[in-house]
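Bumping my old thread because nobody answered last time. Still need a sequence for this structure:
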């Protein structure tokens, strides 16, 4: 098993998503913008564990 940079977030651990409208108390109006959220693919680590596929692997039936 090894780790590779997550292709979903390019290794940043976050992905930008369109945020739903939400009311900002500090701004006093509804905001709609993109916001970073932890990448689900890698769990926010930026890396994903991949299993090395062994050549000639045969599953025993
Ligand atoms: Zn990721």
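Sorry it took so long. Here it is:
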């Amino acid at each position: 098993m090894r780790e590779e940079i997550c292709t979903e977030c390019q290794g940043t651990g976050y992905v930008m998503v369109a945020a739903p409208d939400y009311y900002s108390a500090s701004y006093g109006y509804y905001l709609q913008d993109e916001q970073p959220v932890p990448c689900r693919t890698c769990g926010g680590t930026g890396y994903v564990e991949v299993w090395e596929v062994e050549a000639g692997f045969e599953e025993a039936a």
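The first strand starts at residue 2 and ends at 5. Let me know if any region looks off to you.
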